[in-house]
Specification:
alpha/beta, 4-stranded mixed sheet, binds flavin-adenine dinucleotide
Length: 587
């Protein structure tokens, strides 16, 4: 039976999925680089400017702007923070182009960032960085960035498909190229297939399959689940970053898991265990200013020893820095904590490691091109730039830099592309049938399954891992995925049927969770965010490899590929001997 008669068909030239920093920058750059008359469409699961994680950026944006800091220093911090796993060419482009992009944000997009008395941009300290490098607007930088980008995008002749959820990448019949993307128009519940010559996937990853997590609820790994089904190679899928200081306000509130920004530790915030003792120096000589992976493990180790606060985490304490000072520097964080009954400025706040960012993603080149002609990937959906650990402040730099790159490249590439490509109608049918599964089943409850998934991933594929644990995690994920296929959703109306979308969200999360567990088993060492108690050593740096996961039939195969040290070899540096190791004053 063919199902495709029930869909709306739509054509464009350049299609962008997602309206975070990557998607919106891509739209603006594509407008500049594409030939006149090119039709550009931006489609998003939520509303432009109101969804995704770029809006949630707190601490700020890493960029080397002088004062002793250099692109080389930023690059070396990124490589060392990523434990020699980043794709070095991607990391270099990120650091180099961040300088261009931040000026663009200021001068063309219209962002105002905080300044020093002399008018230069203020840059604050973030963990794992050898210079104060993080440009910011108070402690809620993302709202400034996304609001200004939103104004730019809304005011331009770019077609906007809001509340459109992408559910499938549909190739041509020979499978070599992308034809277009299948969406659900969430407002009507109808399927819409959009053909395009070039498509940017910028749906922003988002590891919301963990009990504690920070990303926005609209982010459920849809992009990576679609890429997996389309047969694309995904790299570093075991690399889930836990931010050490997620607010822990009890099970009853959604505030639990939301992040308290890195600048708190950068400014001298102290972590205390249940007995109110400072413990991070027991785990690392940098104390609280160690990278996120190290601090998360320190906290997790205290939790295992039951050295915990009332809700089972630890405390962050800022009072010794002066409550007035803390209120002035971190007004957003102080308000967020007050909303949950904590006094950040003068007292202690309970925190727990929280899943924050996904370093893994689709294999791309430095121009955001993928193995499939016509498909480009940028932002948190793309793997490579961060290796095993993203430095705080490098996330939004990455999404805006590579979003802009994608816009430039797509605008140029369509000049050599001919007509729109026709889809493989069988794949289109299969994707529609897949999305309709829950509507044909007896309605049940999805939420207990999501809860089970989040517990399984936190317990078995979380901050510290073993092969036995991850294998158990993968088995639990498979069971949850199987059970989901028996739980239906009331399909009386498809218009704004949010339970249907919850089901689809959980389907994506199950599919990607399985890959995380399997890639985790395949990496037999400990690097950055991936820590294996059964393989605690980092392994030979010169023999560094990254994992590549691919869907083969209905299973997932994970292989390894060597990291190419195209700019600097392990143990070496590109900084001149005369430069100090760090420009950051010790706390
Ligand atoms: C609380 C928090 C604080 C952070 N603070 C910082 C910080 O201080 N500095 C820093 O560098 N980074 C920070 N980050 C990370 C940073 O937000 C991300 O690295 C970056 O913004 C990702 O940009 P993106 O464009 O890839 O994705 P996003 O900005 O998340 O955008 C993804 C877009 O895709 C859409 N989408 C998702 N699925 C679909 C679908 N199926 N169909 C259509 N659209 C879809 C979403 O609705 C959204 O519009 C923070 C993250 C969080 C959660």
């Amino acid at each position: 039976m063919t199902l495709t008669h029930d869909i709306d068909r739509h054509d464009t030239d350049i299609l962008i999925i997602g309206t975070g920093g990557a998607g919106m920058f891509a739209a603006l750059h594509a407008q500049q680089s594409a030939p006149a008359g090119t039709k550009i469409t931006i489609a998003v699961k939520g509303l432009i400017g109101k969804c995704g994680c770029t809006r949630m950026v707190q601490g700020g944006y890493n960029v080397a702007l002088g004062g002793g800091d250099t692109v080389e220093r930023h690059f070396m911090d990124t490589i060392q923070g990523g434990k020699w796993l980043p794709d070095q060419d991607m990391a270099w482009k990120l650091c180099e182009q961040a300088v261009v992009r931040v000026r663009e944000l200021e001068n063309e997009v219209g962002c105002f960032f905080d300044r020093n008395a002399d008018g230069s941009l203020h840059q604050k300290a973030f963990a794992g960085q050898t210079a104060d490098r993080t440009v910011h607007k108070g402690d809620l930088t993302g709202i400034e960035i996304i609001n200004r980008l939103m104004e730019q995008v809304l005011s331009r002749p770019i077609e906007k498909l809001q509340e459109h959820r992408a559910i499938g990448l549909v190739p041509t019949r020979d499978g070599a190229s992308l034809s277009g993307v299948l969406f659900i128009d969430m407002r009507s519940g109808k399927f819409r297939f959009v053909r395009a010559k070039t498509v940017l996937m910028a749906t922003g990853g988002g590891p919301t399959m963990y009990k504690y997590h920070t990303p926005s609820g609209d982010k459920t790994m849809d992009g990576l689940a679609m890429a997996l089904r389309a047969g694309l190679p995904l790299r570093d899928m075991e690399m889930v970053q836990f931010h050490p200081t997620g607010l822990l306000a009890g099970e009853h509130t959604k505030m639990t898991g939301t992040v308290l920004e890195e600048g708190l530790r950068g400014a001298g915030g102290q972590l205390l265990n249940g007995a109110e003792n400072r413990f991070m120096f027991d785990y690392d000589p940098r104390g609280e200013r160690a990278t996120r992976d190290v601090v998360s493990r320190g906290i997790y180790a205290e939790m295992r020893k039951n050295n915990t606060s009332a809700n089972g985490g630890v405390f962050i304490s800022m009072g010794h820095l002066g409550p007035e000072n803390v209120r002035r520097k971190f007004p957003g964080m102080v308000r967020r904590c007050a909303d949950s009954g904590f006094d950040l400025a003068g007292g202690k706040v309970e925190v727990v490691p929280t899943a924050h960012y996904f370093m893994g993603g689709v294999v791309v080149d430095t121009d955001t091109r993928t193995a499939m002609e016509g498909l480009y990937v940028a932002g948190e959906d793309a793997g490579g730039a961060h290796g095993s650990n993203r430095l705080g402040g490098n996330g939004v730099a990455n999404s805006t830099v590579y979003g802009g790159v994608a816009g430039d490249v797509m605008g140029a590439d369509i000049r050599r592309m001919g007509a729109l490509r026709d889809p493989d109608e069988d794949v289109l049918d299969a994707e529609i049938a897949r999305a309709l599964v829950p509507l044909s089943l007896k309605p049940g409850h999805i939420h207990p399954l999501r809860h089970e998934l989040q517990e399984a991933m936190w317990e078995d594929v979380g901050v510290m891992r073993t092969e036995t644990g991850m294998a158990r995690g993968a088995a639990r994920v498979a069971e949850i995925g199987d059970e989901l296929m028996t739980v239906g959703v009331d399909g009386t109306t498809r218009a704004f049927n949010l339970t249907w979308h919850d089901w689809l969200n959980l389907r994506s999360l199950c599919d990607v969770s399985d890959v995380i567990a399997k890639a985790g088993i395949a990496r037999e060492n400990s690097r950055g965010a991936h820590f294996r108690e059964d393989f605690p050593e980092p392994g030979d740096m010169n023999g560094s490899y990254f994992t590549i996961a691919r869907q083969i039939g209905s299973g997932v195969e994970v292989t390894r590929a060597p990291v190419r040290f195209t700019i600097v070899e392990p143990g070496e540096t590109i900084l001149p001997d005369s430069e100090p190791e760090t420009l950051v004053a010790a706390q």
